[in-house]
# Entry
Amino acid sequence: MADTWSLGKHTFTSRLLIGTGKYKDFPCMQQALVASGAELVTVAVRRLDLSKKGAESLLEWIPKQMTLLPNTAACFTAEEAIRTARLGRELDMGDLVKLEVIGDKRTLFPDVEGLVQAAKVLVKEGFTVLPYSNDDPVTAKKLEDAGCAAVMPLGAPIGSGLGIRNPYNIRIVMETVKVPVLVDAGVGTASDAAVAMELGAVAVLMNTAIAEAKDPVMMAEAMRDAVAAGRKAFLAGRIPMKLHAAASSPMTGLIGT
Amino acid sequence: MQVKLNGEIREIPEGSSVAGLLAHLGVKAQRVAVEVNEAVVTKDRYDGHTLRPGDSVEIVAFVGGG
# Structure
């Protein structure tokens, strides 16, 4: 049976979600998207630059089979996030939204109060809400109770590349909620993505780690493989950690004894 | 008449509809979403929604993001 996962009415095979920001150009982004094998790609909603008539549209460079996940990045209040989500839905005609309500410019950490408030409104309006959240199990539960289709705790601050800073909290989040847990933000390299998946994350979302790698297309492949490897390791079940050695070769039958 | 368009005061033809404004600006309607006074105007209402002086209009599109 295929190892799939679902969000609302959507079912996916790939467990890597990737962003479309920060690439040096659209052709590079397109190659990275294809190489990543991602089925869900995030996009932002911004004012159209009315001085740039006929500028290339991002959408022309996103493969048609990919599902768009509009975000509410850089929204600092629930109201802004709700308006942005509605505009994203009007652009995309889909129901998915990556909900961000940011509380602090320097860390881009979520404003939990605003996040829960916005989630409640958007769920009522029929959105499939994926909230970008901190790694707090209590917040995760509130988001689940608000009707979110998943929760997305951060591994580390957005764009920091610091990796999964609090694997224990992520594990507690997974124990706490029944909805899928996706690790969003903080991944710096392939091993970080594998760690997230080994913890039992349903999927991993990243942007900067691929877009700002020296070779974004090769990094997209590395992330695809790391997510797949981490998932398999999780399913296979790792051995418990032990302080001392446990020999792999027989300790008996040695010559000269 | 004057409206606030993406944060800037702009002069547009009197009695423009949303569809008329987009045509005036040379913007392809299928690529954008429009909000007037903080409420989304869906594409099926572009022709019927007449703008009034002082309206606050936002025209948005998708850009790269994470």
